[in-house]
Amino acid sequence: MVIPFVNWRGLATLYLKEVRRFFKVQLQTVWAPAITTLLFLAIFTVALGRGGRTVMGGIPFNDFLAPGLIVMGMIQNAFANSSSSILIGKIQGTIIDSLMPPLSSGELLISYVAGALTRGWLVGIAVWMFMLAWPDVHVAIRHPLAILYYGSMGAIMLGLLGVLTGIWAEKFDHAAAVTNFVVQPLSLLSGTFYTVDRLSGPWQAISHANPFFYIIDGFRYGFIGVSDGPLLPGALLLLAINILLWALCYTALRKGWKLKA
C-alpha cells in the first residue's frame, strides 16, 4: 500500500498506544499526580490563605494559587509521559517497534507529544474538578482561549523536552536528574506560589527569564483575569521555544541519535 504524504493510520495507532500505556495505570499517572497537587493546595491555603490575604490588587491568595498548581501538574506530567515512554522503550528494547514501521520522524514526534499533551490535560482537568468543590477556592473560567493556549503550549514544551530527555538518557537516573534539577526547580520558582512584583530587581529579571513563568502567568490569567507579566511577549516566547525544541527533537529522531545502533 502506498502511503501518501502523512501516514494517518500509523500516527493514530502510535498515539493510541501512548494514551493506553499511561491510561492502564491511571491511578499512578493521572490520579496520584492530581492528589499530590491538591496537597500543595491544602498546605498553602492553610499556611498562607487564611485571614483574607490578597495579592495583585485584591485577588484572594487561594484563587491566585489554584490555577498555577493546575498547570504545574499538567506540565510536569507531560514531561514524565514522553521521557518515560522513550526511555523505557530503549531500556526494554521495544523502541524498535516504533522506529521500524513506516512512520516519518515528524509523525513519531507528533504521536509522542500528543500523548504527553493528552496526559497533561487529563491531570489538569482532574485537579480542576477537585478544586471546584474546594472550600474558599474559586476556579471559574474567564478567558478559555488563554487557558487553552498557555496550557497546551506548556504541555507541548515539556512534552518536547521529555522527548529530548528520553532520547539522551541511558538510564532512569539521567531522566530523574533532568526532573530534579531542571523541571521541578523551574516549576517551583516560576511564580506559582508568589507574585513576581514582590521580588527585588535582579530576582524579577531572573523570573522573567524563566519560560515556566509565562506558562503559569498566562494560564492563571485565564481564571483570574489579571496577569503578573506581559501576556503577548510571553505567548510569542513560548511559541519560539516550542519551534526550537521541535527542530531539535525532529533532528535527533531523523538521525537516530542514541536510538539506532
Q: Compute the number of helices.
A: 10
- Rg result: 19 Å
The main sheet comes to: 2 strands, antiparallel
Q: Indicate how many domains the architecture comprises.
A: 1
Average of pLDDT: 91
- Give start-end ranges of low-pLDDT stretches: none
Helix/strand order, N-terminal first? HHEEHHHHHHHH
Amount of beta strand:
under 5%
Q: What's the overall geometry? A: globular
The total strand number stands at 2
Structural class: mainly alpha
Family: Belongs to the ABC-2 integral membrane protein family.
Pfam families: ABC2_membrane
Organism: Sphingoaurantiacus capsulatus
Membrane topology: Multi-pass membrane protein
Which labels suit this protein?
single chain; 261 residues; mainly alpha; two-stranded antiparallel ribbon; 10 helices; 73% helix; 2% strand; transmembrane; Transport permease protein; cell membrane; transmembrane helix; ABC_2_transport
Task: Report on the architecture of this protein.
Strands 1-2 form a two-stranded antiparallel ribbon. By secondary structure, it is an all-alpha fold. Helix content is about 75%, strand content about 0%. The chain is built from 10 helices and 2 strands; from the N terminus they run H-H-E-E-H-H-H-H-H-H-H-H. The chain has one domain (about 10-50, about 55-255). A hairpin with a 3-residue loop joins strand 1 (about 55) and strand 2. The mean pLDDT is about 90. It is a multi-pass membrane protein. Belongs to the ABC-2 integral membrane protein family. Pfam families: ABC2_membrane.
